[in-house]
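Subject: design request, 486 residues
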């Protein structure tokens, strides 16, 4: 039996959804994009263009929810299926868009560079339990106007796993779409084998900016999967109660579902988010707070109730170093998300309120993901009945180390973590250097970087990706990328 966790009764979910729909049909949603307002108006929404406000109808919302697929798949750059977002399938991806990296030698947080991003992409490509890449770091050594497309470019060049990405500008979407088309060869092939998910973020409370709403439209037109990242803050720009925050999150996310499905019914979407409570003592938004995790797992239940696959920013930490807090918050989050059945768990590698990445934390979190995967397998009997013969053998031999039953099921029943996790006795631990968790994590980073092999790509594809990126850079006055690539 697979273990599962729930926070909400069915009748509470229905009340939350009903309240959210009433808000959208009474107060409406602010949309700072005339084209999107026009689309909504054409489908029966009451639109006030002067106030950039659209009041939806229950019919529009219900039609959009019905049109959204209940599952979809992702594929690697090489075209191999890696994800099937349905039911309670769980996949882990690193958190994205970090402004900083935790530098191992100095133990200080600093701005990342292209070299950092390449190391990140090389590392993720080898981590067995991290199913996809994200555009995790924002390199500070390129023009800010190309930072979105540049991150995707590096991920596609140095990695093979699908990419969770996004753009903070309208202009970047075109080249990011063209990169995907260069890999797949046609719009139809891209639709059949999507390799990216774009994060699209409404602004709390109940608002879509010109850029983010256009991102939804652009993705929908090409059937590029979208994850909606609503970010209400409990007690600040959302009700202080978790239920009230869930109502707001539901309304904001449903408004995004409506836009995507009116543009192109059947556009694949993830019912996601990055909400948090607001800690009034420090004026921060703790992603490691247990209440934040409860909100995440709860809106996941709402998404599943609506028949839409889900995403959450969880399994990350607000700590500034690789310390006990980092492990505590990341481990609890990963376990709760997996037991709740969040389909796409975003967060491994992240520290400091979603603003910092650590390569060492990423390899440690990869082990957390392995433990969680074993947890989800649950407990099932495997030739355990009748039990009498096993106990007879044990009493006779005084152990079961080499019994047929042990040899058959040892690897299946017991998860063996990698060298990052210390299970040696103290004398052996001391003999092997007495390394700390952080030191073992760094050793694994170094090993993976030494063993990295560039994924095989047709020469023409590499050249086309580089051509697209160099052309985009020149648009903003950057004549040369930071280093020779590919």
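Subject: RE: design request

Done. Sequence follows.
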């Amino acid at each position: 039996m697979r273990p599962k966790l729930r926070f909400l009764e069915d009748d509470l979910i229905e009340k939350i959804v009903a309240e959210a729909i009433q808000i959208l049909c009474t107060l409406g949603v602010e949309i700072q994009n005339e084209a999107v307002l026009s689309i909504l108006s054409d489908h029966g929404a009451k639109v006030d263009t002067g106030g950039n406000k659209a009041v939806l109808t229950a019919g529009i919302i219900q039609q959009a929810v019905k049109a959204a697929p209940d599952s979809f798949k992702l594929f690697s750059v090489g075209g191999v299926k890696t994800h099937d977002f349905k039911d309670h399938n769980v996949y882990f991806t690193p958190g994205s868009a970090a402004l900083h990296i935790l530098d191992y030698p100095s133990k200080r947080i600093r701005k990342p560079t292209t070299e950092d991003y390449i190391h990140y992409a090389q590392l993720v490509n080898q981590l067995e339990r991290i199913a996809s890449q994200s555009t995790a770091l924002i390199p500070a050594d390129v023009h800010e106007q190309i930072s979105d497309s540049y991150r995707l470019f590096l991920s596609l060049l140095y990695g093979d796993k699908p990419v969770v990405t996004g753009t903070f500008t309208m202009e970047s979407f075109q080249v990011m779409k063209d990169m995907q088309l260069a890999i797949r060869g046609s719009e139809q092939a891209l639709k059949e084998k999507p390799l990216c998910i774009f994060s699209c973020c409404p602004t709390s409370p109940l608002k879509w900016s010109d850029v983010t709403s256009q991102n939804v439209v652009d993705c929908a037109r090409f059937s590029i999967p979208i994850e909606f990242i609503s970010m209400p803050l409990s007690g600040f720009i959302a009700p202080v109660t978790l239920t009230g925050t869930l109502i707001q999150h539901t309304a904001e996310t449903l408004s995004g579902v409506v836009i995507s499905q009116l543009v192109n019914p059947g556009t694949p979407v993830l019912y996601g988010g990055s909400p948090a409570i607001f800690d009034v003592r420090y004026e921060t938004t703790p992603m490691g707070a247990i209440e934040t995790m409860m909100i995440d797992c709860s809106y996941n239940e709402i998404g599943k109730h609506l028949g839409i696959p889900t995403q959450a920013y969880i399994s990350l930490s607000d700590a500034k170093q690789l310390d006990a807090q980092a492990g505590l918050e990341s481990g609890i989050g990963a376990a709760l998300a997996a037991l709740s059945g969040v389909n796409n768990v975003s967060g491994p590698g992240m520290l400091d309120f979603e603003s910092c990445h650590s390569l060492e934390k990423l390899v440690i979190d990869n082990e957390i993901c392995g433990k969680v995967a074993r947890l989800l397998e649950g407990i099932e009997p495997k030739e355990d009945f009748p039990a009498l013969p096993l106990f007879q053998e044990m009493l006779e031999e005084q152990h079961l180390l080499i019994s047929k039953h042990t040899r058959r099921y040892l690897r299946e029943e017991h998860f063996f973590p990698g060298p990052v996790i210390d299970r040696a006795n103290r004398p052996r631990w001391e003999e092997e250097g007495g390394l700390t968790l952080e030191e073992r994590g760094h050793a694994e980073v170094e090993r993976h970087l030494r063993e990295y092999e560039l994924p095989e790509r047709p020469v023409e594809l590499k050249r086309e990706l580089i051509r697209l990126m160099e052309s985009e850079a020149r648009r903003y006055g950057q004549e040369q990328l930071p280093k020779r690539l590919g």
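The mean pLDDT is 97.
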